[in-house]
């Protein structure tokens, strides 16, 4: 997007007798709106290509050849253009179009979900003729047909504006809804027997200018005038999409996307859009729980308790052991403020450095801190080169995927993929290279001209990539985990090498979990203190506020669990973390939890891990708290309270502030305001940021200037793959068995299930068909399953999806190995 | 003697027509358009007219109506169409009987009877629920609750009768019936128009 340009390139037009300035190439309808003249429209949407379908925006335009009616959404502004939006001809045309649109549009506004916020309703009132001359019968269709699990289509109401179909085709790239039939019978529909299965289908409901597309979770729940809305941030993934949270009678009923130029452009994934159902699920934890003391050998079970008793038990558990035997895992669901105060409890009061917000599914913070920071806008800079080192943005960070897709298709960005599996962007990539799992560093070496052990055809492709990179100075790297069955160092080493080779390249880490970037900024990582400084550097600044400070770097999550199995951990605090579900090596977690004496969980649902906890503190969730969120760019945006939490559940920062008082009486902060002030005082990167005024930030948020540190990593040795063994690649898919999806009725059934895929040539060689059951044998365990042949899967690998129904893939993962190789046995 | 003078007024009044009535055993006729307790009507086939659109709640100046809609069960629909009034509550401690809800209703589901004599000993009883407001599914007559004082004819002039003139007051629509029938009453007759003086005189 260009800014309002200098005087030489700006275009001067006359709108209703008033001289205004337009950007070159700007559409007339946008230029008029920016200058305060609203032209009615249905099909025009500023984030999509114009089509001129609805004819509602007809205005009289004179470009020197006399005034003529033209659709203002299709006309670019030109110099000396004279526009009349109020002329008799314009008004007659607009009234005619509306009367025409209403010929077949049913007047069932009283039962239509759009009624009250409907552009057709509003514009009929403002620009319509007032009466219709049509007395014949209207065209009818079967009332709503489901186009997928969550979206209903009412073809009677459709005015054929092409917004949803254009969105599906241009923006999301899932052109699964189209116009069918001709003339009076033209209708939007899906292909026969093929649902509109797009991760982004909910956006079509939001942009539909009539009530033709409605969302099942909101269907008949409330009328738009019942809703109270606040602008907040989606905490579901780390893109930090701006959303509007809409509530009625203390119940969140809808999320809609807010058009933020620098983040999500108004788009949301269906998962983010419909996840609110989980927040009002009746199974939410509504108060603190503790396990009652029972006789030896019998099952312990949770009973409700009071907050003060739960706090006392917490303090007792902490005081009974030494700091280095205490571990804290999680924290990415929390707001920045809550993360800081938990970081203070763990590191500044208890004095342990065994704190990690990542569950071995991210990157080491030292590496992240040493890379050039980037933003989404910088990554999507027109004409730039984007290198994808791992993770499929379509599956993990949907809104970012839409931005990348736009950058590639509309802004001439070139995408280079160096991933072991095909991703949602592969079709658009200039070069989509399948790097064998574990060989990321080799690929980067080859790219920088060093000798590498990759196969010749890959090397040939990489030389072509080299040329593209050489001729471009806007290079961005998207850094994500290529596979959950391998160590993070594989990609980390590649990234560090890439930074050496391309010192100007900037890096966008695709850590997926909610506010994980905030957690790292606030010190919820081993070896880090708030403000992204290390233990030595930060302790001076903190000594006035923190009673103590750890001196030695603590364990990462994986190391904590390994230590726990050796009996080195007594107390484990889970901050909204569910390691049983989310940690790759489930057996290690279970062994560890069995040996840990006291498990304390702060969570919103009774997850598998919470069920094993001894003290459970019920927390409030994102729609119930005030606070702030840091996204993957380091952009801080507000989280706003909309409804009250269930029962006596409390915001995380409140729980933490209470605990501070129980642990060290009279130690500050004691109020939210003091907490906000303390963060700005102790954290270097937040020193210019006022957390108490976060709700005044506009929808674009504020990007922190985080700088970068130096780092060294030691190379890890990746074992050579043995002949006849298969390397396991585990990636996430958009929908899985995650606790929030499981508690949201709209998302529950969408998980694809575990499809374990192999290359058909490999299968043929082993004599396996898709019908034969095979045994997959890893170092730690084995599963029985069928294999799905998939020519896209790299030879010599097995590709599985994370956290799905069906055989538990985690049994095959041993997190102590850098890569996991499997054997296949036919049964 | 002067006290007899005083009685003169009394004696004069004895033979005149009495203006008071022994309320509540006897009640005066109520004005035809009196706004009493609401009823939720049914179509002649027994289906509820309310579609849960919440326009009544939206227009209510006293904020006394709470409506929530829901998907009509396909097997056994409550109202015609996709949506029905799943929750319908009127709080009579707030209601000012302004009748704006009746005007807003797109299906003529909510109307007002002539019955206004009801009182409560409990604030919860003042909130009438859908079950209490709906007319009887057999007879189409309003449900008469124990604390309400219903008299003959108080349930008559509801529904279509109230919309007998066009909203714009256009005389050419007078007498035209453009509303649906009611369970138990059929299609109600149109109200006498304002300009239709002949019928007016006849009736009088």
How would you characterize this protein structure?
The complex is a heterodimer of chains A (827) and B (204). By secondary structure, chain A is an alpha/beta fold. Chain A has five domains: 11-101, Ubiquitin-like (UB roll) (Roll); 138-277, Alpha-Beta Plaits; 289-361 and 520-687, Rossmann fold; 366-509, Dimethylsulfoxide Reductase, domain 2, CATH 3.40.228.10; 726-826, Barwin-like endoglucanases, CATH 2.40.40.20. Chain A is built from 25 helices and 37 strands. In chain A, strands 15-14-27-26-25-16-17 form a seven-stranded mixed beta sheet. A seven-stranded mixed beta sheet of chain A has the order 34-33-37-31-36-32-35. In chain A, a hairpin with an 8-residue loop joins strand 11 (228-233) and strand 12. Chain B is of the alpha+beta class. Chain B has one domain: 2-Layer Sandwich (Alpha-Beta Plaits), CATH 3.30.70.3270. Chain B has five helices and five strands; from the N terminus they run H-E-H-E-E-H-E-E-H-H. In chain B, the strands form two sheets. Chain B has a three-stranded antiparallel beta sheet. Chain A binds chain B through residues 108, 110-111, 115, 143-144, 219-223, 225-226, and chain B through 51-55, 58, 68-71, 81-83, 86, 106-107.
Features:
heterodimer; A: 827 residues; alpha/beta; Ubiquitin-like (UB roll); Alpha-Beta Plaits; Rossmann fold; 5 domains; 7-stranded mixed beta sheet; 25 helices; disordered N terminus; B: 204 residues; alpha+beta; 3-stranded antiparallel beta sheet; two-stranded antiparallel ribbon; 5 helices; 12% strand; elongated
* CATH class division of the largest domain in chain A: Alpha Beta
Mean residue pLDDT of chain A: 91
Oligomer: heterodimer
User: Major sheet of chain A: size, sense and barrel closure?
Assistant: 7 strands, mixed
How many strands of chain A? 37
- The ordered string of helix (H) and strand (E) elements of chain B is HEHEEHEEHH
Briefly note the structural class of the backbone of chain B. alpha+beta
Task: Indicate the CATH class of chain B.
Answer: Alpha Beta
- What would CATH call the architecture of chain B? 2-Layer Sandwich
Biggest β-sheet description of chain B: 3 strands, antiparallel
Radius of gyration of chain B: 21 Å
- Would you tell me the structural class of the helices and strands of chain A? alpha/beta
Provide the low-confidence segments of chain A as ranges: 1-5
**Globular, elongated, flat, extended or rod-shaped: what is the shape of chain A?**
globular
- Number of spatially distinct domains of chain A: 5
Main sheet strand line-up of chain B: 2-3-5
Of all chain pairs, the largest interface belongs to: A-B, 13 and 16 residues
Q: Approximately how much beta-strand content do the residues of chain B carry?
A: 5-15%
